[in-house]
Structure formats: structure tokens, C-alpha cells
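Notebook entry, structure prediction.
Reason for the run: the old model in the group folder had no record of what sequence produced it. Starting over properly, with the input documented here first.
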Amino acid sequence: MQYERRPRLTPAVADVRRAVRAVLPAQGLVLVGLSGGADSLALAAATAFETGRTREGGGSGVRAGAVIIDHNLQSGSAHVAAAAAAQARSLGLDPVLVLTINVAPGTDGPEAAARSARYAAFDRALVTTGAVAVLLGHTLDDQAETVLLGLARGSGPTSLHGMATRSGPWLRPLLGIRRAQTHQFCLDTNLSPWHDPHNQDARYARVRARHTVLPLLERELGPGIREALARTAEQLREDADALDALVPALLAGLPEPQAGGCRVPVSVLDDQPAALRQRMIRAIVHNVCGISLARTHTLMVAALVTDWHGQGALDLPGVRVERQDGDLVFTRPGPTPIEGHFRSHGTPRHP
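New structure, fully documented this time:
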């Protein structure tokens, strides 16, 4: 059944459709990550409308389907997933995939474990369907909560700049849309969203941030806190992107890792400001060991450059770093220390 709803064009409907229109590719298949909640349901309806409108204008255009993830964490989750799939089909989305996953306990808590399992399922959906992107229903409110939680954890810029509108195959068109607007969209278009009970469960930090902390901040400091946090994320992302873009050129003259390791002259790192030095260290470790170095460990490595007083080797998770003869030596755990200098073999690969 093709999408036939023609609701009156209210401000909420217009805003959500416009946001979706701005990120859709020119052609190919996109999938909407649909939970059945108001945010993803509004996104699905707007995507169905915009892609249908594109095809009606002539040419192949872009097609839209949906992927529903049953996390299998709540009683009746299969029924919720089936209802969301039925809504997707009624909107004219095709194909509609329902993927059931098992969320394994993770060291970073149930929310992080569910997120990892969900994105892995999205990856499978991309491969299965040949889709070029998955549209996700994160709103401005979600962005604000992400930044606030990052501040509470003392996270660095990578966490504080929140979610990107475009990040690989992930598209988040609603980051400038308030949650109230997606609920209004559903009211205006006679859609019935599902209300996830987990969104009211105060055991989760995000729920406490949403229902307790942010309202308190707005009462005490004035309205607009969520918008301010989202603007902060955008500004930090712009700065981080600019700094990240400088790193490959700074590492271009270094030798490629050999035999599980790499030597880097201390002077190469010492000449850079801290923001670039830390990024270079993380990139080197990723190249050598394929891991992402935590900030605490990055600063320990940086101290071998900026606060050298004869300290010994650092045995960090996934990498060993020591200072030898004016170089930092990076090796995977286990190999004997690297002797001598490597000859450069061109520009190394960077993450």
C-alpha cells in the first residue's frame, strides 16, 4: 500500500519533512530505523512522503524502507516490533525488515550494550538490502541529553560534540527538531506512537537527565538549555573536525608500522599544541594496534613527551609505549622492543 495520507500541512509536519528532505540522497534505498515511538514514527512518515514525492517528480529518485529492531528486552517486544512493521508498510515503506537481537551484558551498562547490538543489526540490514543509509530519529532533545551526560562524566570533545547529522551510513535529520514537534507531527497525521516504558525508568541516567535534571536547569537558569547544549555540540564538532583533518598531514612523513610497532621522534609530537599532539598519539596507536586509546592513557603517553624524567615503559591496554633515544616506541603487547629506526615507506594509513 502506497503512502496516501494527505494531512494538513501544520508547522510540525512541515518542519519534520523539511529536515528529512535536507539529508536524503539523490538516489538509492534508505532504511528508517523504526521503533514505533513518536520520533522514529514521524521520521518514517516524513521519509515516506518525501521519497514518494521525489519519485512522482520523475526519475528513479530515492526509495525508502524500514528496519525494526526487536531488542528482546521486554515482555511483548515481538508484538511491538510487529506493530511498528505494520505501520511502516501502511506508510508505503518497502522493504520492511524486523530483526530480533540478543543483547549481551556489557561492561559499560545495558544502554551501551543495547546500542552496540542495535548498530550491528543495522549494519546487517545495510548489507542485506543494499541500502545506502539508515535514517535515525535522534532529536535535538537527544543531542542535549548526550552532551549533558558527557559533561557529567567529564568526557572529552569526542563525547561532548554529540551526534553528527551525517556519519558514514547513519543519517540523523531530526537533530534540529524538538521532541515535542515529533509528537505533534503524530497528532497532526493521526499516527499512534508506541510509548516505551524504559523512557520512564529512572534507573537509566538518560531518563533522569530528561525528566529531572534538564527541567531543573531550565527552572533555575531559564529556558533554552537544551538548545544551548545542542549549539555547544555543533560548535565543538566543527572544531574537532578541523583539528582531525590536520592529523594525516602531520603523520605523513612517519614510517609505517613494521613487525607490530613503530618509532616516532619525540620532536614530532613535542612541536605540536596539546590538542594535535593527543590526536596524533591516538592515530598512531590505532595504526599500530587497531585500538582506540582512552584520554587518560593518551595523557600518560603524552607525558613521555612533555614531562620526561626517565619514567619507564607504559603497558597500556592493547599497546606498550616507551621512550628510547629520543623516540617514542609503540608496540603491541608481547614483542621485544624495536631496535633502530624504520625507513619510511610512504604515508601510513589513518583512521
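Summary: The first helix runs from residue 11 to 23.
The old model has been moved to the deprecated folder.
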